[in-house]
């Protein structure tokens, strides 16, 4: 959760003044975060946001990827309040990419998964295309809080559209990264 979500959350907020300063109407600052198809099985369990001892560790990965989509939606809402803000944030599902991520299941299981599914996986080059699309395409820069897949805007799981959860996740994240109200307000000020 720290690597996949809380780190992005904090870094993005700390960069916000600069992103706001450099974003222009026709060339917004773009934040692109890599979610995953596994956000579908993610849940936001507020009592256990910092829990690390799941019996099935992969579950935390899924939670973190759902949290990223919710974050993109909530930040979009919060930025909409300030006029003249040209910052967009979207998340992407790169697809199943044959990277070394599968070795996090262990060396043997990782090698078996890679071997079995080799032909179905995208190469890292292919897997990067949706993120590049969202970072570069003119139309993709006109939306915010959205989810992209195969270089197209797509629907995330309905859990990612729950505004109450997005707002509460934001508040919990601010608390867990230990940001004060003053520091948070500072992130939304103009440089
Ligand atoms: C998520 O977005 C932030 C801000 O653009 C960026 O610094 C970070 O590298 C991104 N993370 C991933 C995994 O794409
Ligand atoms: C996890 O969060 C709970 C509830 O916010 C808190 O009481 C606990 O100290 C946290 N644990 C760690 C390891 O940060
Ligand atoms: C949002 O999630 C909360 C908590 O899980 C749930 O009680 C509520 O019904 C959800 N709202 C919608 C519109 O799905």
UniProtKB/TrEMBL annotation:
This is Retinol dehydrogenase 14. Pfam families: adh_short. Gene3D superfamilies: NAD(P)-binding Rossmann-like Domain. The keyword Transmembrane helix does not apply. The keyword Signal applies. InterPro entries: NAD(P)-bd_dom_sf, SDR_fam. PANTHER family: PHOSPHATIDYLINOSITOL-GLYCAN BIOSYNTHESIS CLASS F PROTEIN, PHOSPHATIDYLINOSITOL-GLYCAN BIOSYNTHESIS CLASS F PROTEIN-RELATED. Keywords: Oxidoreductase, Signal. Residues 1-25 form the signal peptide. GO terms for molecular function: oxidoreductase activity. It comes from Parnassius mnemosyne (clouded apollo).
């Amino acid at each position: 959760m720290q690597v996949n979500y809380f780190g992005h959350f904090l870094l993005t907020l700390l960069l916000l003044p600069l992103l706001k300063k450099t974003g222009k109407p026709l060339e917004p600052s773009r934040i692109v975060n890599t979610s995953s198809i596994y956000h579908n099985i993610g849940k936001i369990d507020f009592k256990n946001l910092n829990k690390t001892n799941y019996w099935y560790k992969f579950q935390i990965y899924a939670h973190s990827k759902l949290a990223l989509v919710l974050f993109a939606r909530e930040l979009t809402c919060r930025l909409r309040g300030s006029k003249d803000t040209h910052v967009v944030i979207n998340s992407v599902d790169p697809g199943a990419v044959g990277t070394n991520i599968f070795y996090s299941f262990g060396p043997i299981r990782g090698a078996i998964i890679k071997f079995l599914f080799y032909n179905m996986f995208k190469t890292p080059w292919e897997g990067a295309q949706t993120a590049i699309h969202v970072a570069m395409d003119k139309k993709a820069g006109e939306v915010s809080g959205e989810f992209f897949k195969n270089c197209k805007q797509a629907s995330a799981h309905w859990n990612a559209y729950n505004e109450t959860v997005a707002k509460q996740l934001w508040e919990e994240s601010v608390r867990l990264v230990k940001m004060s109200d003053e520091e948070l307000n500072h992130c939304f000020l103009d440089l």
